[in-house]
């Protein structure tokens, strides 16, 4: 018997099963976001299971995948590359997942033909390098040096419109493309998007959005404070300004008169006044705080003519400190060490029905704010995600100004070069290179399918066009035909396409290398879950302790004794329950070693609990043993003391059950373990967690079995089709023979027989044989002349000498 090297609940899958689970997970994630690809892609509604049941409507691949809770490890790899794509270049999050899924789909077909995964990976690497070189050759770099710019503004507009064409802003893509390009041009080559702020205000239409120079803070100016400040000196802080009142929840104060309470309040106010005086000593006229500012300090700031802004969100004050050139301060004892922010004008503005604070003439000149207007919060959230993607792509294009055409043109160019490489590559690698080309062509195919077009016809026309020199053809989903991408102004950033190609290839290679999946015992998550349960239990115990304060002394002592007994109890875990063992027999066997409090055994299936109850009832009614005994998989035993539990586990683990040959459990062994940190109350969470693990394993096995069943059903259908064709051919032949017609059948080749050349004809050879004379034959053992004549005619009848 081979001992297990993994802990309990750890699982492993090997070989084809592990590879199949990885491939299925990757293809399932790709199929999930496939319908969102392209200008005519559909949206997904994501509903959370939290208290608010928040709803998100989006077609952004990274947003969809980040919202999913996935257990398949290969699927998590594709989710990670989508996140990296979003962080690096901002666009192409759906394309990279779809391309990786198509590569895995093609690799599965190659694996079915017994091609080794390393051979497939080598072919994919060669194809990816060839495709990248094709992109490098076709990329166009339009640099303009007339106005000291390293990029073309027209290219930026085309890229922005192409990026926004698949988003919710596609109807007004020219307007928002201009907003995005103007905002990025202010950065002067920087990729730091922190200086571009996006504010969402419900109301109006999307076209009411605008770009404002400066910084807008979504806060109101308090009552009695200046509404306009010129040449502002701004102190951005994160400090507590709410200690002018007695903290009710923070401390307990016992006083014998209200005069003492008044003295405490006066001391608090004096302390706050000193803090405000230190802030005013910095020579500022605007104070922005992350936390609340209560009435008393706000009044002091107003008397000093200082604009005080409270409860600004943390992102807001970080961005404000960045654009005004200041730093966030927490202590104010040394004014010389605090860096203040500066701007030319602070004023209050109105956007819709809301009042906001506008900072203009900030120290960082490239700072700006995009104000989005829309019908609802969901529309504004999706518009913000779309605009953020466009800003990311444009900021990357400023540094790398190479541009490619869009509309499936880059994929067809790469596929053409990869096909040519496959023709000149010997061996099985050529099959992998051809599969890579098919995966690339799947991108324009999916774009056409999502637009409701005939993808097979369009891709065939597109392939024929790309065999011409200087072709710029792509799929135009607006007109539903093949169009010139250069004339229509559909362009994409080279950096986006390169990142999609390389990331998808690397992800597919990583998944193809897998031949074993090991799922470790979920101790970390389980301990974390137990931590939450423990915190909840501690809070409940704290409440119980508060209730105990109001009980009499007798009940206090009783509760205290029960708590002490519960702390002394210990739990043992039985990982395998022998057949025929039940609660009564288990108690009889173990009770001789120590006092037992409770026993819980888990039935082998989910419907067993009800059946056990029914069996018990039938035993009571009939007085017999009832139906067949219930089988149990595992169990827990609670002892009155931890020492007993530990001693029983050390004494019985690995030993034979019963100890005598006449016992029915003699040939079984104890599998019992002491759980030092386990409490009986944790049993419900433990059972639920194990049930979830079993359901997950069962789902994976069912999916693999269904896939195998579909494969064999397909083979059966093919064989049935071939047999039906043969039957029809036989019937046709029979009908034609009966009607007297000739039925043309392909001539069968005669069986090949090895022919030995004859040097002389057979008749001549027989005549040339030496013949025995009759006299000689008659002299052999005194044969008669008549018998000699017969021997001459049949010489094989000569008896042995």
Overview of the molecule:
- This protein is an alpha+beta fold and 801 residues long.
- The protein is built from 25 helices and 23 strands.
- The strands form seven sheets. Strands 7, 8, 9, 10, 11, 12 and 13 form a seven-stranded mixed β-sheet that branches.
- Helix 1 (15-33) crosses helix 3, helix 4 (93-112) packs parallel to helix 16 (494-512) and helix 5 (117-138) crosses helix 13.
- The radius of gyration is 42 Å and the shape is flat.
Question: Secondary structure elements and their pairing?
Answer:
Elements (H helix, E strand, L loop, with lengths): L10 E4 H19 L10 E4 L7 E4 L2 H6 L6 H16 L4 H20 L4 H22 L1 E2 L11 H12 L8 H13 L10 E7 L7 E4 L1 E3 L10 E10 L20 H23 L5 E4 L5 H9 L3 E3 L4 H11 L3 E2 L11 E11 L2 E9 L5 E7 L2 H23 L2 E4 L3 H16 L4 H22 L4 H11 L7 E4 L4 E4 H4 L2 E3 H19 L3 E4 L3 H26 L4 H16 L1 E5 L8 H8 L5 E8 L4 H15 L9 E8 L2 H11 L19 E4 L7 H56 L23 H6 L6 H6 L5 H9 L8
Helix pairs in contact: 1-3, 1-4, 3-4, 3-16, 4-13, 4-16, 5-12, 5-13, 5-16, 6-7, 6-11, 7-11, 8-9, 12-13, 13-14
């Amino acid at each position: 018997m081979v001992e297990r090297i993994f802990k309990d609940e750890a699982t492993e899958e090997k070989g084809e099963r592990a590879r199949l689970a990885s491939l299925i997970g990757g293809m399932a994630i790709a199929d999930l976001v496939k319908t969102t690809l392209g200008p005519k892609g559909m949206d997904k509604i994501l509903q959370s299971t939290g208290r608010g049941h928040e709803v998100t409507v989006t077609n952004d691949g990274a947003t969809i995948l980040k919202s999913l809770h996935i257990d398949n490890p290969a699927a998590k790899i594709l989710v990670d590359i989508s996140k990296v794509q979003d962080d690096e270049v901002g666009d192409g999050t759906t394309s990279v997942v779809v391309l990786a899924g198509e590569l895995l789909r093609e690799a599965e077909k190659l694996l079915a033909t017994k091609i080794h995964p390393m051979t497939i990976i080598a072919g994919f690497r060669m194809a990816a390098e060839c495709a990248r070189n094709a992109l490098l050759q076709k990329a166009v770099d339009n640099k303009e040096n007339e106005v000291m710019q390293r990029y073309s503004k027209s290219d930026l507009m085309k890229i922005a419109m192409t990026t926004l064409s698949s988003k919710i802003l596609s109807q007004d893509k020219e307007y928002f493309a201009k907003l995005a390009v103007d905002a990025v041009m202010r950065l002067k080559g920087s990729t730091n998007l922190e200086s571009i702020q996006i504010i969402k205000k419900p109301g109006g239409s999307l076209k009411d959005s605008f770009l404002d120079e400066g910084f807008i803070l979504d806060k109101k100016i308090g009552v009695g404070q200046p509404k306009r400040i010129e040449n502002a000196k701004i102190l951005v802080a994160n400090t507590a300004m709410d200690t002018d009142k007695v903290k009710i929840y923070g401390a307990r104060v016992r006083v014998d008169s209200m005069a003492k309470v008044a003295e405490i309040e006066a001391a608090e106010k004096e302390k706050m006044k000193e803090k405000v005086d230190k802030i005013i000593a910095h020579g500022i006229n605007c104070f922005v705080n992350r936390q609340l500012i209560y009435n008393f300090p706000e009044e002091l700031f107003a008397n000093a003519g200082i604009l005080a802004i409270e409860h600004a969100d943390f992102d807001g004050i970080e961005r404000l400190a960045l654009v005004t050139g200041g730093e966030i301060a927490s202590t104010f004892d040394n004014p010389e060490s605090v860096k203040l922010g500066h701007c030319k004008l602070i004023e209050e503005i109105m956007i819709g029905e809301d009042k906001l604070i506008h900072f203009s003439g900030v120290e960082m000149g490239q700072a700006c704010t995009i104000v989005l207007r829309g019908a609802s919060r969901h529309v504004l959230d999706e518009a913000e995600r779309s605009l953020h993607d466009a800003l990311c792509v444009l900021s990357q294009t400023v540094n790398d100004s190479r541009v490619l055409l869009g509309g499936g043109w880059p994929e067809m160019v790469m596929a053409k070069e990869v096909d040519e490489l496959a023709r000149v590559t010997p061996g099985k690698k050529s099959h992998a290179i051809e599969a890579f080309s098919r995966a690339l062509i799947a991108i324009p195919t999916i774009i056409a399918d999502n637009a409701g077009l005939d993808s097979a016809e369009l891709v065939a026309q597109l392939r024929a066009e790309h065999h011409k020199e200087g072709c710029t053809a792509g799929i135009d989903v607006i007109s539903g035909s093949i169009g010139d991408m250069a004339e229509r102004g559909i362009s994409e950033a080279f950096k986006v396409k390169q990142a999609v190609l390389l990331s998808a290839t690397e992800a597919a290679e990583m998944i193809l290398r897998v031949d074993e999946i090991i799922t470790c015992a979920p101790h970390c998550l389980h301990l974390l879950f137990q931590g939450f349960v423990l915190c909840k239990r501690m809070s409940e115990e704290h409440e119980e302790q508060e209730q105990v304060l109001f009980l009499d002394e007798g009940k206090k002592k009783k509760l205290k004794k029960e708590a002490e007994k519960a702390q002394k109890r210990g739990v043992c875990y039985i990982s395998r329950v022998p057949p025929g063992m039940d609660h009564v027999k288990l108690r009889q066997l173990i009770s001789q070693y120590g006092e037992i409090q409770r026993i819980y055994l888990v039935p082998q299936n989910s419907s067993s609990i009800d059946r056990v109850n029914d069996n018990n009832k039938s035993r009571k009614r009939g007085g017999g043993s009832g139906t067949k005994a219930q089988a149990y998989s595992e169990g827990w035993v609670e002892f009155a003391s931890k020492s007993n539990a530990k001693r029983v586990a050390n004494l019985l683990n690995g030993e034979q059950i019963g100890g005598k040959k006449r016992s029915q459990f003699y040939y079984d062994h104890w599998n019992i373990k002491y759980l030092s940190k386990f409490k009986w109350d944790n049993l419900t969470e433990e059972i639920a967690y194990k049930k979830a693990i079993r359901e997950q394993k069962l789902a994976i096995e069912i999916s693999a079995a269904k896939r195998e069943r579909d494969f064999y059903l397909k083979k059966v259908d093919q064989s049935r089709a071939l047999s039906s064709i043969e039957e029809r051919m036989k019937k046709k032949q029979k009908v034609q023979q009966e009607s007297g017609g000739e039925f043309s059948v392909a001539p069968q080749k005669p069986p090949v027989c090895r022919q030995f050349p004859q040097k002389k004809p057979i008749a001549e050879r027989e005549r040339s044989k030496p013949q025995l004379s009759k006299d000689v034959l008659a002299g052999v053992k005194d044969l008669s002349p008549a018998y000699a004549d017969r021997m001459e005619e049949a010489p094989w009848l000569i008896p042995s000498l």
